[in-house]
């Protein structure tokens, strides 16, 4: 994928340049602009069940494939302010991506909910994993800046669940409370995840869950009787 990421880390946009005959797969609603010879095809890509699993994982039921006969560009932008990064897959280890962080990828990449192991992951925070496999590039978006890390075998990193972006499937994980019930309730920390290498981990410097809680505090909903 030939992509130029600009305006980061606060308001990043990825501009994918398509060669003649090229294509890129984009999350529904993430397209910001097109330029040149570009056509769009909307589908579930993989059939009804894969579309359903993506939607249950927090993504749109549909995806958009952008094609170019003679060459063109597709600009991709996320809903929340933040950064973007390109990640390469070589057909071996899968990449597990938090729902909402997948923005675009080569058509050779399969994006599916990680049914089974991912169904309980982050369940307390409402976050589901997408399992990305194949050979090609992905474009990931984040809320805030993105920080990559490489864990050696046996090395552990602990992240608040709201700051997780993606990690290699070779990385082991375990979800737990941040501390005792007292510190969890009164200390403002909820669930954390221990990641153990080897493999890559990406985190974001802001949490959309924290943003939602802040909005609720400063703008509480009125009851229907008021």
Automatic annotation (TrEMBL):
Gene3D superfamilies: Mitochondrial biogenesis AIM24 (3.60.160.10). It comes from the Bacteria. It holds the Pfam family AIM24. This is TIGR00266 family protein. It comes from Agromyces luteolus. The lineage of its organism: Bacteria, Bacillati, Actinomycetota, Actinomycetes, Micrococcales.
